[in-house]
Amino acid sequence: MAQFKRDLNIICLSPFTSGHISSQNKVPWWTQEGEVQMVQSKGSRGLRVAGAEATVLSFPASQIFSNCDYFPAEFSLVATMKIPRLRQKRNEYIFSVVEEGSDSLLLGLRARVTLGNPPPCSGPEQGQLWFNAQRKGLFICDGLTWTTLLHNPERLDYVEDYQDLYTSSETFDVEIFSVPSEGLFMAAANRDSRPGSGIYRWRNGSFQLYQNISTQEARAWKHFTIAGKIFLVVANSREAEPELSVIYRWNQRRQRFLRHQTLETHAALDWEAFQMHNHSFLVVANHRRDSNHNILSVIYRWNPDTQLFEVNQTVATSGAYDWEFFSVGPYHFLAVANTFDGQTTSISSTVYVWLDGCFQVFQSIPTVGATDWETFQIHGRVFLAVANSQKVSQRGPSLYSINSTVYELNTLTQTFIRFQDILTHSAVDWEFFTVGEEKFLVVANSHDGSSYSLNSVVYRWQGYEGFVAVHSLPTFGCRDWEHFSTDQGSFLVYSSATSRLSKVFKLRTY
Ligand SMILES: [Ca+2]
Ligand SMILES: [Ca+2]
Ligand SMILES: [Ca+2]
């Protein structure tokens, strides 16, 4: 536009013209007294253009670009249009620049309006705008598809029963992952060794059994990739000699997971996989050896020469139940959930930070039978939520209805500080997920001292108020929650440690 002189007319806020601009329907707003009123609506002030006739607000460019001789190459005008009724299937100019005098169009911003149905978008439509009046979204055609410029983000409406997944035995953990070119998979950690644990594949909108892998009281699966190769590691918890957990690798030719490496573990309950400084690591949560809970958990590092994991560091843990890896800027952290030291569940769980080539204690946090750490970030704030499962009492029965706690990293004091306590019932898992721009936590409530039939609760982030309960989901022996998305939408799945029924829920949005 830079070559144009300033003697142009800018026409904006012209929602009632239909592509044709003429001198008759231009209303210079500063001259049309009575036609334009200053109005206030719900706290915002604006100009109301009166009259049912096609109306245009127009003014010479020289009035706003008063300090430049030429029409600027880049400029922005901020305007809010409020139209009481929007006619469907219109093709409207909402902004145009015309040559003063001749009225010939130099620049026009025009949007098609439909109630949901996308207009054609191919070569000829490239650069055209489309306003979807139903979803209140503004799209631009890139020559192939409509891409979003502005849209009303999806919001969670309700959670709906979607699939009953009957597993071969009780399921302690599910792990969702995708195999490129093959699609979405779910590994279930099942109690029985025959037929073992189920690997499911998402086909035609539901999970279907794909492969059985013999496991020994499997408690957790973790998937990871190294140099494009896909791996699964299982935590086998059965105390038989030798106690081995197994790493499997996806074989593209046989379309199956095949055994890759075995590692000695002790009542293993969890594996975490992570990458740091171009190295791949695994860490196992060794829960117990015989009756001793105060044992070593082990961090392994991948050796690219041997294509095997090797011991890198050992860490003293007390009834370790879960590991969680996370990074904050250049710093890498590992958090362990310590459940029990042989005496009590009121012990410390530890956050480690990677310094000088090994993990060192960053902070010890008091927990009560900790079973899970979940980390997440909201608007740059770093949170860590612990699931507290039970308070063992010297006298009387254990307490299951206790607080679980969300901590926030205070970057000034460099410590995690209690942010919010949430009452849970033998919590064994937290899962963080987002829908559109909304952020949620769902807890696995497993037991209240008498029943395994409990509501697990979805909490929504409410900013200043923290997390607020918004949905209750009936669960039975809930052990693990996972969130996943497919072409069909977004879902939650939970596994049951007390029944053979796991369930998939669909997240309905509006
Ligand atoms: Ca899981
Ligand atoms: Ca974990
Ligand atoms: Ca979790």
TrEMBL record:
Pfam families: EPTP. Keywords: Repeat, Signal. It comes from the Eukaryota. SUPFAM superfamilies: Nitrous oxide reductase, N-terminal domain. One of its GO terms (biological process) is signal transduction. PANTHER family: THROMBOSPONDIN-TYPE LAMININ G DOMAIN AND EAR REPEAT-CONTAINING, THROMBOSPONDIN-TYPE LAMININ G DOMAIN AND EAR REPEAT-CONTAINING PROTEIN. This is Thrombospondin type laminin G domain and EAR repeats. The lineage of its organism: Eukaryota, Metazoa, Chordata, Craniata, Vertebrata. The gene is LOC116062647.
